[in-house]
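The passage that follows is intended for readers who have already worked through the single-chain material. We present the inputs for a multi-component assembly, then the predicted structure in tokenized form, and finally a short commentary. You are encouraged to pause after the input and sketch how you expect the pieces to fit together before reading on.
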Amino acid sequence: MFGSAVVGQTFLGFALAWTMRDWRSPLRAVVEVLVIVAWILPSSVVAFLWIAFLDGQSGTLNALLPGVNTEWLLDTLLLAVIVFNTWRGTAFSMLLYEAALSAVPPSHLETARLAGASAFQQLRDVVLPTIRGHILTSLLLISLWTFNDFTPYLLTRGGPNFRTEVLPVFTFRNAISSGQLGYGAAISTVVLGVNLIIALFYLRLLRERS
Amino acid sequence: MGETFRQVLARVGFSVFVALAAAFFALPMLWLVFAPFDPTPTLAARPAGPTLANFRDVFQNPLVLTSLRNSLLLAL
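Having made your guess, compare it with the prediction:
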């Protein structure tokens, strides 16, 4: 199973920004507000919402799917956390790509269209090279935020049997709940190291631009 | 209208995509629309009540005002 909240947030955020770029309708504001509300609600409220949404007995999701009684947080494990995180974080990508797309000169797109480029070719050859810096910055930020995110703990407490435990939760459990100071400090250093590697990787890609 | 089949298809695809995205973002929040006004709330999103008893209980708890003040102090 392949899943990643960073991939989900980036693709969904870009897809929303790209498909809605020329949409002049009050409905556009409704969609944007829904996406942004998911982003600005406090983590504790959001965790409460998703526990209710994914509940096996009476959750909204199972109520919509007749005959399904899956206890999503227990049965789909990390996939549920990934979908949750995509829901939670897409707004940032959407807003960033909306701003980036408005910076693409319309004349470049017009030229490409007159030369007979399809929508996909315009996207690949005109839009993506222009907003490359935005894409990398967004990927850097959401990779770090998602890697360091603690909200899965509010949703699952790391369970069942530690199977949805992410590294920040593991650190919290060992360092603070169990009081193993040296062990906790060592994991914290590892977390820091992983963050530095992610940051260096993206900064290198960004520098190759010039 | 002079629209080609491809353009119609693109419009339908766009509408379906936007509707699905809106549903994905709205559905988890549906429960929060009903539960605060529900006299006997469960984890199910269903219209019931409405009652303001839950809100009355919140504001009768003195600790709420403490945490509200703390949050405001942090945020202002």
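Commentary: The domain at 5-207 of chain A is CATH 1.10.3720.10 (MetI-like fold). The interface with chain B takes residues 12, 15-16, 19-20, 27, 30-31, 34-35, 37-38, 45, 49-53, 55, 57-61, 63-64, 87, 90 of chain A (CB under 8 Å). How closely did your sketch match?
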